[in-house]
């Protein structure tokens, strides 16, 4: 008899589709929720990692853009801190300068996505780290970042670090 077989097949496919759709919707909600939790504690890199590769819904697109914007700067800041801890002082200073450069380049976008406060907080952290660890002001960092000649850029960083006695 074909009717019971067709009915069982249709029900099986319906259950399978229900499970797949439910897991997709639930997985998306959990991922966005985890990203928002990381965002709340100002861990923008983790928030970005949670949603990386996720096709965001229209209602979450602004949140996605906010995270991307903040994570770009925070990743360089964290990189600078890690490199400093490892004794890679020239690379650390380079990361801090790049973080401030990214801040400047995307400053207008931070206003558009209403994250100016968080964005400015990251800039303050960067400036504090550069000042405390290398004695470099934001103005000097911006001047170095603006150099077109990569050799001159590298030499400026090297001279600062060498002047502090951190390398020979």
Layout: helices, strands, pairs:
Layout: H1 2-40, H2 44-51, H3 61-85, H4 89-105, H5 107-112, H6 116-134, H7 138-145, H8 150-163
Helix pairs in contact: 1-2, 2-3, 3-4, 3-6, 4-6, 4-7, 4-8
Question: Which short descriptors sum up this protein?
Answer:
elongated, about 0% strand, mainly alpha, about 170 residues, single chain, 8 helices
Shape: elongated
The secondary-structure class comes to mainly alpha
Oligomeric description of these chains: single chain
Q: Radius of gyration over alpha carbons?
A: 24 Å
The topology string of helices and strands comes to: HHHHHHHH
DSSP E strands, number: 0
Indicate the mean pLDDT. Answer: 93
Low-confidence stretches: none
Helix content: over 70%
Helical element count?
A: 8
Distance between the termini: 87 Å
Q: Which sheet architecture does the biggest sheet show? A: none
Strand content: under 5%
Q: How would you describe this structure to a colleague?
A:
The structure is a single chain. The model has no long low-confidence stretch (mean pLDDT 93). This protein has helices spanning 2-40, 44-51, 61-85, 89-105, 107-112, 116-134, 138-145, 150-163. The longest helix has 39 residues, at 2-40. The chain is elongated. 28% of the residues are buried. It starts with a helix and ends in a 5-residue tail after the last helix. The protein is built from eight helices and no strands. It has 168 residues and is mainly alpha-helical.
Short summary:
With 168 residues, the protein is mainly α. The protein contains 8 helices and no strands.
């Amino acid at each position: 008899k074909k009717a019971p077989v067709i009915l069982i097949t249709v029900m099986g496919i319906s259950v399978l589709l229900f499970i797949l759709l439910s897991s997709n919707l639930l997985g998306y909600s959990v991922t966005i929720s985890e990203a928002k939790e990381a965002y709340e504690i100002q861990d923008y890199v983790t928030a970005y990692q949670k949603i990386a590769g996720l096709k965001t819904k229209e209602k979450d697109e602004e949140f996605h853009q906010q995270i991307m914007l903040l994570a770009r700067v925070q990743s360089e800041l964290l990189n600078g801190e890690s490199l400093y801890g490892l004794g890679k002082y020239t690379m650390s200073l380079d990361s801090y300068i790049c973080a401030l450069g990214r801040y400047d380049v995307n400053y207008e976008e931070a206003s558009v996505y209403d994250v100016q406060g968080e964005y400015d907080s990251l800039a303050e952290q960067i400036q504090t780290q550069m000042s405390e660890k290398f004695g470099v002001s934001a103005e000097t960092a911006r001047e170095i970042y603006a150099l077109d000649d990569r050799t001159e850029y590298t030499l400026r960083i090297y001279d600062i670090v060498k002047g502090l006695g951190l390398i020979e």
